[in-house]
Amino acid sequence: xxxxxxxxxxxxxxxxxxxxxxRVADVANRVKVGFxxxxxxxxxxxxxxxxxxxxxxQLGKLIEDDMKYVxxxxxxANKKSQLHxxxxxxxxxxxxxxxxxxxxEKEANCLNIVIIQPNLKTVNPKFMxxxxxxxxxxxxxxxxxxxxxxxxxxxKDIENLDVNIPSLSEQQKIALLFSELDTLIESAEKELEGYxxxxxxxxxxxxxxxxxxxxxxxxxxxxGDWKQRKLPxxxxxxxxxxxxxxxxxxxxxLVLRSSNVKDGxxxxxxxxxxxxxxxxxxxxxxxxIIVVVRNGSRAxxxxxxxxxxxxxxxxxxxxxxGIRSEHSSFVNALLDTSTFENEIAKNIGATINxxxxxxxxxxxxMIPTEKEQDKIGTYFSSLDDLIAIQQRExxxxxxxxxxxxxxxxx
Length: 410
Known about the structure:
Helix content: 25-40%
Number of strands: 23
Oligomer: single chain
Strand content: 15-25%
Mean pLDDT: 93
């Protein structure tokens, strides 16, 4: 059989024995499905028993967003769906096949999830989780789904998945490596979330609340009230490029669209280039802010990012608007505030998801002096840089894990 591209050696520096082809059923004491059906009437408050659902299984990690809790009576009556430390949980639908290790001693239950109880004499639970999440097994699950998102995996589907198993000693080394990598990812996620929470808190405190003329937190050298201004009084706008499919080519002028704006940064994603000869709109400049003004998803309206470096031969698309200001870092922070979100909600069309030039012209904001704008802009620009650096670190760890899953499993 095929061997993985990357392997550990044993403590004597020699190669471990060959991997063996198995099925999940061969290395599990039991494969079962947790409670299936409606159980809303058993829901209770946070003093109840945690109930994990498919949405709590994400990217090999058990998350506790939107948790539900059930009564003790439900938990006792449904022993089949009770969770125990070392159980492997597999999503049956949606992200079908996504495996997570339940590594807690706490009582818990699950809804519509496959539970694998691994045979600890032959398989390390953490190794097994990563094996199920490896490309080889993911491909098997994809074939079962055959392109459908509605397919529900049953116990036989999971039992018959092919997995390649090394010696228990090699499994333990692989499991330790991925556990350490998961710890790095979790730490990076927490630090990133900390920076984002700091930013949200400072946006609330460094810009005046509704009806107020000064912010709660202010640099000590500034005093006096902020002034209410309409957006066009302190920024200028430029329009995006309208082009046809015939204008698109492999190289040329880059057209920034909504897909190029993510988490307040410009990213390479589904890039589109057009023939230089059809470009009739302004090239973006360093400091410009580009804003999504029309999109099928209302949630994307107002999404924006600042151009932080020179980008020659780059324009924005027709569903974007460009904002130019001598104090662009302040304006970019201003567009991150809830005030901007409220202005969008107040002005956006009832049926068409867009912000028109007229809507922009009617938006009003509280504005300080230019010197204070620059000080605030510099602060938030530095904070954005920290967030971007932390995001890149997190992405790097995730890419490393993805690469190791491809190379250390077969």
